[in-house]
Amino acid sequence: MDNNLLCAVYSPEDFNNRGHKLIELLTQHLDEKLNEKSAQAIQWNEPDEELRFWKDFLKNGDEERLFSEITKRTTYVHHPKYIGHQVSPAAPITALTGMISSLLNNGMAVYEMGMSSSAIERVITDWLCKKVGWDTDSRGFLTSGGTLANLTALLSARKAIVEHDIWYEGHVSNLGVMVSEEAHYCVDRAAKIMGLGEKGIIKIPATDNFEMDTSLLEEKFQEASKKGVKIFAIVGSAPSTATGIYDDLDAIGRFAEKHEIWFHVDGAHGGAAIFSPKYRFTVEGIERADSIVIDGHKMMMMPTITTALLFKNGRHTLATFSQKADYLLTQSDHEDWYNSGKKTFECTKNMMSIHWYTLLKVYGEEIFNQYVTNLYDLGHLFGELVQANSDFILAVTPISNIVCFRFIKNDMTDEQLNILNKNIRRHLLEDGEFYIVQTTLRGIHYLRTTIMNPFTTEAHLTALLTKIKELAITL
Ligand SMILES: *Cc1c(COP(=O)(O)O)cnc(C)c1O
Questions:
Q1: Fewest beta carbons within 10 Å, which of 29, 71, 97, 356?
Q2: Cβ-Cβ contacts under 8 Å for 472 (sequence gap 6 or more)
């Protein structure tokens, strides 16, 4: 059997050659996008057109153009006019740590397959727990995304709170989780995966400001109890995805303590506010949580996908995927902190801890404060710009860097305005100068922006509003 291809694949010279060219390409990409030498934040293609291109490219495309075509045909998250979804413009240095992880490919399931990255993960999660305000009994680990981390946390909660050993014996009673109607859909999905069913998801209505109405907690708890549903956990959003509004974590935490249920904080987006002295108030009470999720790839400048799941009581990290008996064993003197696979959903995962550690080592903790604080400041500024402009209305005064608003006109009904705003967003996408998204809140269609780029300025935001107004007149 020939091995010429295999020799080519593993040629160090070839890697060096392509690697240097790729760095040149990505450097140019960064410069063009960050510094707006490229006029567009996205060059939109319809899905079928994109599919045709890549089918054809496999046969006829010039290999030399492969990486540049991939790069070109993306949404430019480093462009200051990218103001859309919540993924960060990855800190360029984390592209390098991503390369290290990919090449070294230590799969992390057991300590031996990732010695440095396992120890580094402990350093990082201990540091995060300390920032939350917890003591040295707290522990955490890194996992692949907020969705998986929320599911893992709820599994831990069920293991810790419910006396019956579901892991071993299966369900025997009705269990429930309390969560705001505004929470990310993945919490609902997690509860469904856990077999709680619709009756096991106790949705707490939100206030006019889209935060969980904590005045209803007691009533909802009693209502569920009467129906025979045993509530074992409550989830607070920090903040909720659609509006960027934080739940009152302190109030939820006190409620959870009173009823001896698990308090989980979904801080996938804004848990990183623990780094901002100015915005720390948004997560007041977070230290009351039993578990917390913080995404690295949202408000911490890391590449997709890396999420911290933190536990106030470290014993729970090892209990999630074990039987009750093993659970007690983990209280023994020898703590098996270094074998990742026992704690995570994943067996193999990438060496994600090195992104966190490298940013911390090279730039210091202050970088996370600067990122969060600047972006939340921009969110507030944009809120003020919208408010001051009579052609627009805010869904809610922003607290974070997520801002929902819509174009309005006096003589139009809500339904007509919904259609108009949908059209505006569609035209913006096809135009490509700006990239923003959209959401529907209580039947009203809004344009939705998340300011993720610290180099987005007031001028960009004003230009966006002007562009929308000009567009709306033509529709
Ligand atoms: C983004 C988000 C999630 C999902 O996290 P992924 O990392 O995308 O899986 C969950 N909850 C909230 C509040 C989020 O903003």
A1: 71
A2: 391, 407, 409, 420, 424
If we measure between CA atoms, which residue out of 243, 177, 264 comes closest to residue 379? Answer: 243
Taking the CA of residue 304 as reference, the ligand 1 atom at the shortest distance is 7
Q: Give the Cα-Cα-Cα angle 407, 210, 369 (nearest 5 degrees).
A: 90
Cβ 146 under 6 angstroms from ligand 1:
yes
Write out pLDDT tens, residues 380-433.
999 999 999 999 999 999 999 999 999 999 999 999 999 999 999 999 999 999
Q: Residue 139: what residue type?
A: R
Q: Count CA within 13 A, CB hemisphere, residue 216.
A: 16
From 266, 302, 399, give the residue whose CB has the most ligand 1 atoms within 8 Å, as the site to mutate. 266
pLDDT tens digits, 138-168 = 999 999 999 999 999 999 999 999 998 888 8
| Ordered alpha helix ranges (H), 35-165 | 47-60, 66-72, 92-104, 115-132, 146-161
Residue 186 CB less than 6 A away from ligand 1: yes
- As a whole number of angstroms, the distance between CA 193 and CA 148 comes to 11
The CA distance from 441 to 3, in Å, is 58
Instruction: Give, using CA atoms, the residue closest to atom 2 of ligand 1.
Output: 268
User: In residues, how long is the chain?
Assistant: 475
In ligand 1, which atom is closest to the CA atom of 307? 7
247 touches ligand 1 (CB under 6 Å)? no
- Give the 3-state secondary structure of residue 392: strand
Ligand 1 center–CA 236 separation, angstroms: 13
For residue 12, give the H/E element and its range.
Answer: helix 12-34
Ligand 1 nearest-atom number relative to CA 186: 10
Give me the phi and psi of 85, to 5 degrees please.
Answer: -75, 175
pLDDT digits (tens, 9 = 90+) for 81-90: 999 999 999 9
Distances (CA, A) of 400 to 206, 293, 396: 18, 17, 11
**Residue 145 beta carbon below 6 angstroms from any ligand 1 atom:** yes
Contact 318, 336 (CB under 8 A): yes
**How many Å lie between the centroid of ligand 1 and the Cα of residue 37?**
32
Which of 72, 63, 67, 78 is CA-nearest to residue 22? 67
E-only strand ranges, 47-137: none
What ligand 1 atom has the least distance to the C-alpha of 267? 13
Q: Which of 142, 247, 295 to mutate to test the pocket of ligand 1 (most atoms within 8 A of CB)?
A: 295
Q: Each residue of 280-324: pLDDT tens digit?
A: 999 999 999 999 999 999 999 999 999 999 999 999 998 888 865
